[in-house]
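Notes to self, Type I-E CRISPR-associated protein Cse1/CasA:
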Amino acid sequence: MPETDQNNSGGVLSFDLTARPWIPMLRVDGSQDELSLREVFEQAHDLRRIVGDLPTQEFALVRLLLAVAHDALDGPQDIDAWAELWADEDCFAPVGAYLEEHRGRFDLLDAEAPFFQTAGLRTAKDEVFSLNRIVADVPNGEPFFTARMPTVERLTFAEAARWVVHTHAYDTSGIKTGVQGDKRAKGGKVYPLGVGWAGNLGGVFVEGRTLRETLLLNLVAADTSNLAIDEADAPAWRREPCGPGGAERAPTGVRDLYTWQTRRLRLHFDDSGVHGVVLGYGDPLIPRNRQHREPMTAWRRSKPQEAKLRQSPVYLPREHAPERSAWRGLGALVSTEAGTAGGPEPAGYLRPGILEWVARLVTEGELERGFLVRARIIGARYGTQQSVIDEIVDDRVAMAVVLLHQRDRRYAEQAVAAVGDADLAVNALGDLATNLARAAGTEMEGPRSSARDLAYGLLEAPYRTWLAHLADTDDPYARRTDWQQQVYGIVAGLGDRLMAAAGDAAWQGRIVQLKHGTEWLNSALAGKWFRAALYKGLGRPDSSDMPPDADASPAPETTVKAPA
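result:
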């Protein structure tokens, strides 16, 4: 099959994204394929998920598919309309006619309105730049860490289409070359205006068993509380083509935000592929207080911004921490401590609107309590004034939707408390590592950090398994006890290994300074404090495992407490 089609105007190149394969998909049977937009919706029941070049590309493409679905289905307007879609195996049938109607705006190479691009975009010197500017897996100045070193010479049209979508979502900030017609350009440059819209977010969406389920689970109804969707909400392809420069305006809803044109770009190509790009800034959008528009991130209250702006509350997207696995941050996903900002004191954080929506579905009985979903988290960590992407976060937590139930909070409370059990045990192990190092007279921070990392690593798989089956019981409190016993066994075993490896110096010990005076600290005393801390926090899992003096409280002034 040729790389491009010839359109009807006589030899002009065309790459129609509604008909040409360009989205890489994983099928339910484990095979991979590349499909067109039309094929993705036709076969959604047989597809597992998108497999992009990067996780951030997958997030950007999911949002693109959701914008198509929202617009083609004109909703759903309410939960009853959503329930009809969920029950209809052929719910995406209207998408085919919709794509046909708008196919002219989905041509990547169109001369007048190329997909997600600006026709005729040029610099004053007619410069054409390397594709490194839009391919995010080529770190600037770090060519030895990529398979494409040292530069990207060419992309297929399918690859280029994916990176165009990704650029609007995650492009870096920094000084960019000014384009003709952009009034913001000074001396041929436009100074930093921020990263692509999704780059501001701690991205969250819900995965089902198939792509069909995933799209429907994230298809938020227009009447969802705390989410504002205007009647005029429309995706980029139903708006006037973008000219050079940017427009200051507010988003109209999810279709608008999912396709927000944060950049102005134009691909340069020949009949065998794309070989260059012109890239500039597009429509700026400040992420502050967008919680009523953007549902695919959690939000945190910013006291510094409130003081600076003299208004309250001020919410910013809650970004993901690369060093913290998703299961350890479960509270931000399922806890209702965030609530709404309607109380006397505004909430410290707000959980993602997508999860509020799924909570509504299970609370109103549209989803069975034991229905299993995966909360998928994807985000980018930027460095050096947001001019490079340092790290990408990609994780998921499988859980039954009952954890999101708005009126039965028992399961969510025990799930979050179980993370607290893990934190308590890991902190106790860190204290043990610190005390063993103190007893031996060696450096303390390295052993403490290594012990904590090892413990979290060994607890992760058991917790995920425990969480996925939490809905199998009518008594989540009993399951919590089972989990505490698992934690005790795993971490106590790690403590035994640390003590065995501590060596003669720690066994002999030395005098250390305490708040109340001095004491002889050795591995035996450090071990006693460690077991007592586990017992106090997790209970007695097995009486034969406990030393006779385990009930003694640890001396807090002899340990260096780990940060939460």
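- The two ends are 56 Å apart (CA to CA).
- Residues 143-147, 338-342, 543-564 have pLDDT under 50 and may be disordered.
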